[in-house]
Protein 1
Amino acid sequence: MKGIDDAKKIIVAIDGYSSSGKSTMARELAKRVGYVYVDSGAMYRAVTLYAIRHDMVTPEKKVKTEELIAALPDIHISFQAAGADGIQHTLLNGEDVEKFIRDMEVSNMVSPVAVIPEVRQRLTALQQEFGIHKGIIMDGRDIGTTVFPDAELKVFVCASPEERARRRYKELLEKGEDVEYDEVYKNVVERDRIDTTREVSPLRKASDAIELDNGDMTPSEQMDWLLEKFQEQVG
Ligand code: DC
């Protein structure tokens, strides 16, 4: 009988709008099927945190692009396997920065950092290395279009901006952040705008991706849907 280790290993690309719940779906699927999970957004967030910490953002909230490009060789991003909290932590030059990369300061600056072609090039190469042996689930904006255009399973997740802002707002409140819903909503809409209109690898559905509107779905319904699509691919 075919064991799980003999099963065909595939690449799963899960793209979609910010706060669409794609990371939760991707992480959960990886856990269920024993694949590696990579949160590509966390990588863009880590570069953004580096820029903020190294004074590469002006008081007018402009990224000092040349300085950041020059610093790219000094920015090393890796992941630490999930610990007691069940969450994989992002490391920036060896430091666990998981709790810093999700705050509003980073969220507000990450899209302008992610439009820089040199940043994208570097992170794309790193993401492709992670997928060399397949058996990986990566979520982001351009995974099915640019990072892994040959991924066997591509999912494009969407939900209304209001629903996504509501989810992110709840998440931030639970973390004890002092935020207003309006601020979170504006951030979601602005990130959608920048992510979909940037020149390099804009957020768009790959022609062979399956679209999932999860606005009215519970997490367990989403998981059932995704597991079914996964099983169809691995056979
Ligand atoms: O998934 P997220 O919200 O944590 O992503 C943070 C930002 O990173 C998002 O606003 C756009 C950018 N991003 C990207 O440009 N390409 C990716 N593959 C992943 C994220």
Protein 2
Amino acid sequence: MSTTIFTTATPPSSIESAYKAAQERYAALGVDTEAALKRLATVHVSLHCWQGDDVGGFEKLGEALGGGLAATGNYPGKARTPNELRGDTVRALSLIPGKHRFNLHALYAETGGKRVDRNELLPEHFQGWIDWSKEQGLGMDFNPSYFSHPKAADGLTLAHPDTGIRKFWIEHGIACRKIGGAIGAALGKTCVTNVWIPDGMKDLPIDRVAPRQRLTEALDEIFAVPVNRADNLDSVESKLFGIGSESYVVGSHEYYLGYAIARKKLLCLDTGHFHPTETIVDKISAVFSQLDEILLHVSRGIRWDSDHVVIVDDSLLAIAQELVRGNFLDRTHVGLDYFDASINRVAAWVIGARAMIKALLIALLEPIQLLRELENVGDFTARLAMLEELKTMPYAAIWDYYCLKQNVPVGPAWIGEVKQYETDVLSKRS
Ligand code: RNT
Ligand code: ZN
């Protein structure tokens, strides 16, 4: 097998001439490719730390991945330390065009070998991440970790009937919002702190009410502590079911939609958290009718919320189109959320992030004005015909040019770089 395509760079002159030709084709439709690329460069995708080590974290509590989450596969080379995870992330980011963000979970705290429980976490336990993010010019996002912990072993946290356990997790939520605030202040870039809890039941609950009441009270207590909104934004993430919570999830979509509207919080829509054939495409404009901002967890569920690596598929394209057509980009925080342990983890980040950015580019290259006009005059024939014609427009040439201008490998050339990193670094890990 010849793998030279993984290591051969396309000559810049051929990328530029292809770009010029494509630019003319788009101009004929009234699309300004330069403006599209400029807009694309302002979108910062939040790269999730947990793809780098299968949601392991560094607490070393000896707990298996909990909360009904599962990373399948045992591809060698996962990050074992914060420094390894940072190194892997830097390598991934060097292959992704644009400036991005880093999304950290509380269980990645650096406590210098000291056991610090989740309710006692402080900004100082994340100083290493903050310093590194600053050095890399990255914004940061944050997440309390309500899983992989003895006090979450029965699948209940903020909705737990036991007051003591509930109190512990409320304290964790407050601690994390303060950490989010410290992160945002230190970096001068607002941090989004997203609350997701696994709470639910495997089998038929008798009481669906009390757990939701307890959750509301717990969330209200967590959010009652003032944290500067310029430093930290709070978000809540719903889910349909998890492994072991198939019959009932306390924080369902309807629950959090109501909560986010009532309490002015961001709503996090995770693409894997709905029925298998249900997409979030039509929810975006619907929730924006009542909410100022949202967070996306872009994932790819297959048959269940299986958290596969994001690719440019129809549903990703449709999400990107909604964000652009609805003019929602400025009000949407785009994060990735998947964990595939069966392939090279650095490549998993790169594939997903490049797919997300590519989908946004394709959406930004639509002749929206023209499509809107066709719709407004009721010419649905031409609207549909145009949407089909757009599928063979030369956006690949624009994408290649963007990668070139952003100093990242064009086309499959990035694969060679990941393979080299695997040989030099990842394969040396036991
Ligand atoms: C779980 C949620 C949640 C997690 C991360 C690790 O189903 O999607 O966002 O994936 O917090
Ligand atoms: Zn998620």
